[in-house]
């Protein structure tokens, strides 16, 4: 057994894109280390044992992109359904079609408005506060969409997401709150959208399916004493690291803060529980933020009748042992991150990437796009032309 040309830490979309490109285009032998018992990172999915319904284990994943390069690339490994994401939201005993649009405005205010009438109404309500004078998230939101829409559709949901009263949250968290003055209720406005026909795990597995790629599961880069542990291989082989950047440096500058979500799955003995894939809950006294019903992501599939799986989602700050999901990104976090970036630049033979390695929320297409750029701009020049890695 010979040593690999490249070690990739983490088998999410970022790590697998790097591994696939280096193996296929440069013929490198790539070893991927993954500490979980499965590959794929947070996009991993599996069939619920009782119903066979594909469950996105780390939260619902909808693929969308306007990036042609990324779209061409991902289509090498999977085809996509024509699924279009739409989200509904409960508030005070009614269901509204999100995002905020003319339909929601008409329903909420109890009468029909032309686009111009709705625009004038919201502008008048928003004039209560000047945007430049907003000192917290609540004031900022009211200055953008007015108090009635804020109180119904932003306040409770935001308070639950952040476990913090919106008057105590920074105004910077939101820059815009888009309202559509038409009936368009598609969630994404990217050029391409769909779900992988045979699921995320099949797609991710195909990316790693190359004779030059080995994926070692249940292998933590930082666990001491194995053949490819950090202590042993740092400085001896090029590494692409997609784990948490603070963890790499032993949290020397302090831990970066994250939000996590708790997902509670349950089988319901009905064909259809809520009539859509995602229902948001805007009322503050309902503890969950959303309910997902996964069978609606693939209406083209055949399911056993009389059963469905739903997942309640709860949002909270991550503790040390929780899965990090969304960067909190406070001023202190940003300061720490700058220090980690300096350290990362100086780390010989290691490139940092992906959402954990850069402390950035990245959609899948962004993680893939950024890995393709790292391959073109850093790895290919290094391996094909002998350029320095950094
Ligand atoms: P990812 O986290 O997927 O992979 C990193 C891997 O590294 C993990 O498998 C981890 O176990 C491993 N690892 C870390 N440290 C290690 C170590 N020391 N040793 C070995 N392995 C280690 N995107 C989108 O486009 N549409 C969507 O709808 C959603 N929805 C969504 C919901 C939720 C709740 C979240 C949290 C995220 C999304 N996303 C999304 C974003 C999507 O999950 C994200 O783009 C990809 O996970 C990014 O892939 P990465 O490879 O960067 O990280």
Give your account of this protein's structure.
- With 390 residues, the chain is α/β, with parallel strands linked by helices.
- It folds into two domains: 6-83 and 193-255 and 329-385, NAD(P)-binding Rossmann-like Domain (Rossmann fold, 3-Layer(aba) Sandwich), CATH 3.40.50; 99-173, protoporphyrinogen ix oxidase, domain 3, CATH 1.10.3110.
- The chain contains twelve helices and 16 strands.
- The chain has helices at residues 13-26, 68-74, 102-109, 115-126, 137-145, 147-162, 200-207, 230-233, 245-248, 331-346, 354-358, 364-385, and strands at residues 6-9, 30-33, 45-47, 54-56, 63-65, 87-91, 94-97, 192-194, 213-216, 239-241, 258-268, 278-281, 290-293, 308-317, 326-327, 350-352.
- Strands 7-6-12-13-14-11-15 form a seven-stranded mixed sheet. The protein has a five-stranded parallel sheet with strand order 9-2-1-10-16. Strands 3-4 form a two-stranded antiparallel sheet.
- A hairpin with a 2-residue loop joins strand 6 (87-91) and strand 7 (94-97).
- The structure holds dihydroflavine-adenine dinucleotide.
- Dihydroflavine-adenine dinucleotide (FDA) binds next to helix 1, helix 11 and helix 12.
- Keywords: FAD, Flavoprotein, Isomerase.
- It comes from Nocardioides koreensis.
- InterPro entries: UDP-GALP_mutase (IPR004379), UDP-GalPyranose_mutase_C (IPR015899).
- This is UDP-galactopyranose mutase.
- Its cofactor is FAD.
């Amino acid at each position: 057994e010979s040593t690999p040309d490249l070690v990739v830490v983490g088998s999410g979309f970022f790590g697998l894109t790097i591994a696939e490109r280096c193996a296929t285009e440069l013929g490198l032998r790539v070893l991927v280390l993954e500490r979980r018992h499965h590959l794929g990172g947070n996009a991993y999915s599996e069939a619920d044992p009782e119903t066979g319904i594909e469950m996105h284990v780390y939260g619902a994943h909808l693929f969308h992109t306007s990036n042609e390069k990324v779209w061409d690339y991902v289509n090498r490994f999977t085809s996509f359904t024509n699924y279009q994401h739409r989200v509904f939201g409960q508030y005070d005993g009614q269901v509204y079609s999100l995002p905020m649009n003319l339909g929601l405005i008409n329903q909420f205010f109890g009468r029909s408005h032309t686009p111009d009438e709705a625009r004038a109404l919201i502008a008048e309500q928003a004039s209560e506060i000047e945007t430049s004078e907003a000192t917290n998230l609540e004031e900022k939101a009211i200055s953008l969409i007015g108090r009635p829409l804020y109180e119904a559709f932003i306040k409770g949901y935001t308070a639950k997401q952040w476990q913090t009263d919106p008057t105590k949250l920074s105004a910077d968290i939101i820059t815009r709150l888009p309202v559509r003055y038409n009936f368009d209720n598609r969630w994404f406005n990217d050029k391409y959208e769909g779900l992988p026909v045979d699921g995320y795990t099949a797609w991710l597995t195909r990316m790693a399916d190359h004779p030059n790629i080995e994926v070692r599961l249940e292998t933590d880069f930082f666990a001491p004493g194995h053949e490819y542990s950090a202590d042993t291989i740092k400085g001896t082989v090029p590494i692409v690291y997609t784990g948490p950047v603070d963890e790499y440096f032993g949290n020397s500058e302090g831990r970066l803060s994250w939000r996590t979500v708790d997902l509670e799955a349950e089988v319901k003995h009905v064909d259809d529980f809520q009539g859509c894939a995602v229902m948001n809950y805007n009322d503050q006294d309902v503890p969950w933020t959303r309910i997902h019903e996964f069978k609606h992501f693939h209406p083209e599939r055949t399911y056993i009748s009389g059963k469905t799986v739903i997942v309640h989602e709860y949002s909270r700050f991550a503790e040390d042992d929780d899965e990090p999901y969304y960067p909190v990104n406070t001023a202190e976090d940003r300061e720490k991150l700058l220090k980690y970036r300096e350290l990362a630049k100086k780390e010989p033979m290691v490139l940092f990437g992906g959402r954990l390695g850069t402390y950035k929320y990245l959609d899948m297409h962004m993680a893939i796009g950024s890995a393709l750029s790292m391959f073109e701009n850093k790895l290919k020049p290094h391996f094909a032309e002998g350029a320095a890695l950094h």
